[in-house]
From TrEMBL:
This is Integrase zinc-binding domain-containing protein. It comes from Moniliophthora roreri (strain MCA 2997) (Cocoa frosty pod rot fungus).
Length: 217
């Protein structure tokens, strides 16, 4: 058995007679933000905690930095304890998320977007997507654009089905679910989007990938 240090009974003496603690302004306080006399009696002087008002983003940054320093010190203490016991710690890297491929010209050439299965209408709509965005976003462009009469009729007919958000992205309206509109992806990015969606759901198969795409696109 290990020998325990003697208990100093004076450490456990309670001299608190129940009298409330008195508060006063510190010597370095030159100006009261609020009249101290108005709220000093409302301070919990037995079981209270110190609360401070954060006035700017730097206050939060300071707290985060202090928390980071504490975590760093704790980690160094753990490492030193392990070393003192002859245990070496090895840092390991685990990739929990699959990163999407880089959308380069070479990648696009290796993953071409096939259109044999698509209808003539779908192909025609793809060809008009850029003009459709301009048609919806800029009324002046509608008047100044040099378009064929057939193109103008096509854009005018399709425009109620789409809209452009404040960031310039084209969406197709979802008539069945209000608010869950579908992002229109340019043809040159569709194969990359399918690959990224498949990687995002963790290679869970075609059904999971298809469900994600149908919900968002």
């Amino acid at each position: 058995m290990t020998e325990r240090p003697l208990i100093n009974e004076e450490d456990y003496l309670d001299d608190d007679n129940g009298e409330l603690l008195r508060f006063w302004m510190g010597d370095s306080v030159l100006e009261e933000l609020y009249p101290f006399e108005n709220f000093k009696d409302e301070i919990d002087n037995h079981g209270g905690y110190l609360f401070e008002l954060a006035k700017c983003i730097e206050d939060f940054e300071d707290e985060l930095h202090e928390a980071w320093l504490e975590a760093k010190v704790d980690e160094e203490v753990r490492v030193n304890i392990l070393k003192s016991r002859g245990i070496e710690r090895v840092d390991m890297f685990v990739q929990l998320k699959v990163f999407s491929p880089q959308l380069t010209e070479e990648w696009s050439d290796d993953h071409p977007y096939k259109e044999k299965h698509r209808s003539d209408f779908a192909k025609n709509l793809d060809d008009h997507l850029d003009n459709l965005k301009k048609w919806l976003a800029d009324e002046d462009w509608q008047e100044s654009a040099n378009l064929e009469q057939s193109d103008c009729k096509f854009l005018e007919k399709q425009s109620p089905k789409f809209f452009v958000d404040r960031d310039g992205r084209l969406y197709r309206r979802n008539e069945n679910l209000e608010g869950q509109h579908r992002l229109v992806v340019p043809k040159e990015k569709r194969m990359w989007m399918i690959t990224a969606a498949h990687d995002y759901v963790g290679h869970k198969g075609m059904y999971a990938t298809e469900s994600l795409l149908k919900k968002r696109f």
